Amino acid sequence: MFSKKIKQVTGVLMAGFLIGVTATLASAAPLRGPFINTPTYVVNNQYYRYTAWSEIDRTAANNMKSQTYINNQVEWEAVPAGYIGAQTALYKDGALVASSSPSYTDFPTYAHVATEINTYGYGNYSAKGVVYVYKGNGYDSFITNQTPAMAGGF
C-alpha cells in the first residue's frame, strides 16, 4: 500500500514537472543579441544615431521568429521615410536557413523591424541581421550581433 502511494505521488510530481517544463519552454522570452550603435550621421542638418539588435523567439505554433530592429536614439526626432532599413536571417544549428528581404520605412518613424518566421525541424535557432542607414548620398550597412541559440521547431 505504501509503495502504491509513492508511485502515485511520484507520477503526479512527474506530470507536474513535465507540464511546468513545457509551459516554460512555450513561454520563454525572446533571446536578444548584444546591441550595436552606429556613428552619428548628419543629413540635411539633422543628427541621427541608431541602435540595432536581433532577437530569436518561438511563436505560439512553435515556429521560430527572427527579428532585426533599428531604433533612432534621438527619441524626439522621427527619421524620414526611407532613411532606415533592416533585413533579418534565421539560423538553425549555425547554418543559414531563411532570410527576409531588405525593407525600409515607408513613412517618418522612430524605428523599423524586419521579421522572418519559419521552422526547419527541431534544432537550435538563432538570429542575425543587417541594418541600413541613409547617410545623405547612399547607405551604410551594419551587421547585428548573433543571438544566443534557442531550442525549438518541430
What does this structure look like?
- By secondary structure, the chain is an alpha+beta fold.
- It has one helix at about 1-25; strands spanning about 30, 35, 40-45, 45-50, 50-60, 65-70, 85-90, 95-100, 105, 110-120, 125-135, 140-145, 150.
- The strands form three sheets. Strands 7, 8, 9, 11, 12 and 13 form a six-stranded antiparallel beta sheet that branches. Strands 1, 2, 5, 6 and 10 form a five-stranded antiparallel beta sheet that branches. A two-stranded antiparallel sheet has the order 3-4.
- A hairpin with a 5-residue loop joins strand 5 (about 50-60) and strand 6 (about 65-70).
- The longest helix has 25 residues, at about 1-25.
- The two termini are about 40 Å apart.
- Keywords: Signal.
Low-pLDDT ranges: 12-25
CATH topology: Immunoglobulin-like
The largest pleated sheet is described as: 6 strands, antiparallel
Structure summary, number of beta strands: 13
Order of helices and strands: HEEEEEEEEEEEEE
What is the name of the CATH class?
A: Mainly Beta
Query: What is the radius of gyration computed over CA atoms, rounded to a whole number of angstroms?
Result: 21 Å
Q: Average pLDDT, to the nearest integer?
A: 86
Shape: elongated
Structural classification: alpha+beta
Distance between the termini: 41 Å
Ordered list of secondary-structure elements with their pairings:
Blueprint: H1 2-26, E1 31-32, E2 36-37, E3 41-43, E4 46-48, E5 50-58, E6 64-72, E7 84-92, E8 95-99, E9 103-104, E10 111-118, E11 123-134, E12 139-143, E13 150-152
Antiparallel strand pairs: 1-5, 2-5, 3-4, 5-6, 6-10, 7-8, 7-9, 7-11, 11-12, 11-13
